[in-house]
Amino acid sequence: MHMSKKSSTFAAAKVMIMIKSAQYIISSPDVKDCPKSILPEYAFIGRSNVGKSSLINMLCHNPKLAKTSQKPGKTLLINHFLINEQWHLVDLPGYGYAQAGQKQRDALKRMIERYCLLREQLVCLFVLVDCRHEPQKIDLEFINWLGENGVPFAIVFTKGDKLGKVRLKENVEAYKARLLEDWEELPPVFVTSAETKLGGEELTAYIEQLNQEVQS
Ligand code: GTP
Ligand code: MG
Question: What is the C-alpha separation between 154 and 192, in angstroms, rounded?
Fold first, then answer.
C-alpha cells in the first residue's frame, strides 16, 4: 500500500514537468506530406466533436494550440505539434461527421486510414470516445479495423465532467464489457475531461512511458 502511494506521488510530480513546450509544426493533407522526422508520434482520433483538439490543448496547457469548435468538422487536416522538442502529438480530423457530404467523408476516411497504416513513427493511436454515449457502431468498427491491421491503440473517454461519478464509472465499465465481446484483452483505457483536467497526468505519463520504451 505504502509503496504504491509513494510511487504514484512520484509519478504525478514527474508529470508536472513533462509537457514543457508545445509548438505547432504543420498541417498536412496526406500522410506523405507529414514531417519526415522520425520522432515518436502519438495521434488523437475519434468522431467529429468528441474533443480531440480540446484534449490536446489541455495536455499542453495551451487553450489556443489546436483549433476547437462547437461545430463538428473543425479539424480537416493532419496537424503536427512538437512536444518538448522530442515527440509529436497529432490532431487528426474526426470521422463520420454526418453533415459533411459523402465525398468529404470518404476523403477524410482515406486520409485517416492512410495515416494509421503508413505512418511508421506512430507509437500509439488514442481513440477518443464520448463517455456519455453507449458504444457506437462507427467507433467499434474503427477499433476492430485497427486490431485487424495491427495498429497499436488505447481508448480515451472524453468529457468526463459531463457525467456524475457513478454514471461515468458505469458507462466506462459497460464500454469495456462491450469491447471484451470482440477482444480477448482490453487496450489501455483513460478517462479524461478537458474542462477539469481529469486524466491528463495519466495520459501524459503513459506517453512518456512509451517514449522510454521506444528509445530503449
Ligand atoms: P473535430 O475537429 O470537429 O473533429 O472536433 P474535436 O474532436 O477536435 O472536438 P473539439 O476539441 O473541437 O471539441 C468539440 C466541442 O466539445 C467544443 O465545444 C469543446 O469545448 C467541447 N469539449 C471538448 N472537450 C470537452 C470536455 O472535456 N468537457 C466539456 N464539457 N466539453 C468539451
Ligand atoms: Mg478538432
Answer: 13
pLDDT tens profile 109-137:
999 999 999 999 999 999 999 999 999 99
CATH number, domain at 52?
3.40.50.300
pTM over 0.90: yes
CB of 72 shorter than 6 A to ligand 1: yes
Residue 1 lies in a domain: no
What is the tally of structural domains in the chain? 1
User: Ligand 1, atom 26: nearest CA belongs to which residue?
Assistant: 159
| CA 210 to mean position of chain CA atoms | 14
H/E element, 203: helix 200-215
* Model confidence at 170: pLDDT above 60: yes
Range of the domain at 53: 22-215
